[in-house]
Amino acid sequence: MKKIDIIVPCYNEDAVLELFYEKTTEVIRTVENYEFQFVFVDDGSRDGTYQKMKELANINPQVRYLSFSKNFGKEAAMYAGLTYSDGEYVIVMDADLQHPPELIPKMIAEVEKGVDCCAAQRIGRKGESRVRSFFSRQFYKISNRFTDVNLVQGAVDYRIMSRRMVDAVLSMSERQRFSKGIFAWVGFTTVWLPYENVERTAGSSKWNFWSLFKYAMDGITAFSVTPLRTVTFIGGLISLFSFIYIAVTLVKTFIYGIDVPGYVTLLCAVLFLGGIIELSLGVLGEYVAHIYVEIKGRPIFILKDMNFPLTKELHEDEK
Ligand code: UDP
Ligand code: MG
Predict the structure, then answer these.
(1) Pocket flag, ligand 1, residue 94 (CB < 6 Å)
(2) What pLDDT score does 131 carry?
(3) Nearest atom, ligand 1, residue 13 CA
(4) In what side-by-side order are the strands of the sheet with 89-92?
């Protein structure tokens, strides 16, 4: 029997975890020829999530859990799950039931046809604020223009991947992980399954405007150097105009003499250039920050507890 791992990053999902487990179990029971293993990743939750996982593991030996020493973020949680998974196929899905478990059989049917990945694509954004939808659409537009990976509008992390695709994802060793980009970057054929957006069953979303903004910035700078080139281009353009303007002003001065007023021109030029310089520094800073974080080479996650049997490979790592 082929094995499928279901990786579920959880941060304060106390209110919904059990329901998630029940609903998903109901669905996978209908799937024949596969054995399933849950991999719950407790991302440093402050509520009873970790205890719930342990309880589930006690009643079902197919439940594995990994528990972080603190909150490392969803990306780290997914990465940890993928690292420990060993199934022929791996499913990644959210704990809040926004990723309908009913799609699992369809996803499996797709990969059985030979593709390496089948991912869910959200259509409609019911239950999401207009402002958020607007910024989200802009993000896709900008990032697809700027980066060399093509992000699909409405693509979510909910997907099934073949072992070779998981290995490819794991071989990308960056600390700051932007999975949407990584999944796109590794290639392989992906089949998209559309589904209606569902509201959270319980608990609350962990995203706010700034965290999304940061996520978007990280995503773009991680997959493209176009912002740097753009800054160079703008600098070049300004220099060119400046030379022309200087030449014209000099000639005018020689012919007509010095004309004293110029306060407004001066002020505009200083403010404009100041703004551009700040902006360029900011863009440069984004990349320096990336280098800084990567060069430190800190672990992506730190485990506090888990119930995986230690495999040989991991033992060797520890030596
Ligand atoms: N999550 C996590 N660590 C975090 C934030 C979120 O593991 O720091 C998990 C969360 O428990 C959920 C999934 O990531 O299973 C998606 O989070 P959320 O529902 O808050 O995001 P949204 O659905 O609003 O994009
Ligand atoms: Mg959610």
Answers:
(1) yes
(2) 78
(3) 11
(4) 190-196, 117-123, 155-162, 89-92, 2-10, 34-42, 63-68, 303-306
C-alpha–C-alpha distance, residues 58 and 50, integer Å: 12
How many folded domains does the chain comprise? 2
Give the other-Cβ count within 10 Å of 37's Cβ: 18
Half-sphere exposure of 80 (CA within 13 A, CB side): 31
pTM score, whole prediction: 0.83
What's the 226 CA to ligand 2 centre distance in angstroms? 31
Please, what is the average pLDDT of the chain? 88
Average pLDDT of the residues in 287-295 = 93
Q: Do 197 and 256 have their domain in common?
A: no
Is the C-beta atom of 73 inside 6 A of ligand 1? yes
For residue 96, which atom of ligand 1 is closest to its CA? 15
pLDDT tens-digit map of 149-164 = 888 888 889 999 999 9
Residue 43 CB–ligand 1 contact under 6 Å: yes
* Owning domain of residue 188: 2-224+299-318
Residue 90 sits in the same domain as residue 239: no
Percent of the chain at pLDDT > 70 equals 94
Q: 98 and 188 in one domain?
A: yes
